[in-house]
Each structure stands twice: as C-alpha cells, then as structure tokens.
Amino acid sequence: MTGLHINEIDVPKVIKNGTVEFVTLDCDYTLEENEKPGLVVKWYFNNQDSPVYQWIPNQRPQDLGILRGKLNLDFRVSEDTYKMYRALRIKEPHTDLSGKYLCQVSTLFNNAYKSGTMLVYCEFTQL
C-alpha cells in the first residue's frame, strides 16, 4: 500500500426527489505525512473530463459544472486540515444529479480513485 489510500466512498444509492434537504457524498482516505504536499481532492460526475468539485487544503473549496451553486461549501466532514472538505454536501438533490460520482485524491506522488452511483428518482402517480 502507498502512503495514499481511499478507504471508502459513501454515495447514497437511491434518493426520492424532493424528500431530503441535503445529501452527503464522502470520500474517506488515509494519507501519510509524506503524501500531504500537493494534496488535491476532486470529484467528477458521469465520466466527464472536468471536475464538479475541487479542494486544496488551505483554500476554499470550489463547486464547478453541474454542481455550481448546489453545494454547501462551508460543510466540514472532519476537523483534520487535510480531510475537512473532502465530502460533497449537495443541497436539495434533484433527478439531474443522478449518475456516477468519482472521487480522485491526488498528491505529488500518488493518485487514488473510487466511484459510486446515486439515483435520484421521481415518483409518478397514476391519474
């Protein structure tokens, strides 16, 4: 094992549209001291080339693409300086956010990836 390892990615499998105020997608990783320089956490949506979220320690997280304006950028999942903003906190998730989420954790020496799929569905009633 390298000095960087994603332990677990927590992406809710199924959410009914309009039933939750927020949803949290978490990317829990282990990082050895020598891996801390150059740490960057990025999240990607549906295999797109550009990230929808990026965080570099000691900088403000960025919401990008389809998640711009849909994240709580003040949400901290940890008090650890190198893990605090690793998670996505999506406000009022809708069906357009259904898909595959990939977490990439990078340092100067290593990259680690894990993904999960979330379905946000609508319930239709028969008339």
What would your notes on this structure say?
By secondary structure, this protein is mainly β. The chain has a single domain (about 5-115), classed as Immunoglobulin-like (Sandwich), CATH 2.60.40. Helix content is about 0%, strand content about 45%. The chain contains no helices and 9 strands. The strands form 2 sheets. A 6-stranded mixed sheet has the order 2-9-8-4-5-6, with no helix packed on it. Strand 8 and strand 9 (about 110-120) form a beta hairpin. The chain is elongated and about 60 Å long. The mean pLDDT is about 95.
Descriptive tags:
single chain; mainly beta; six-stranded mixed sheet; three-stranded antiparallel sheet; 9 strands; elongated
CATH fold assignment: Immunoglobulin-like
**Rounded mean pLDDT score:** 95
Kindly name the structural category: mainly beta
- Count of DSSP-assigned helices: 0
Number of domains: 1
Main-sheet strand order equals 2-9-8-4-5-6
What's the CATH H-level homologous superfamily?
Answer: Immunoglobulins
Number of strands: 9
Q: What is the terminal separation in angstroms? A: 57 Å
Low-confidence stretches: none
Helix and strand run:
EEEEEEEEE
Instruction: Report the top-level CATH class.
Output: Mainly Beta
- Looking at the overall shape, the CATH architecture is Sandwich
The portion of residues forming beta strands comes to 35-45%
Biggest beta sheet attributes: 6 strands, mixed
Radius of gyration: 15 Å
The level of helicity is: under 10%
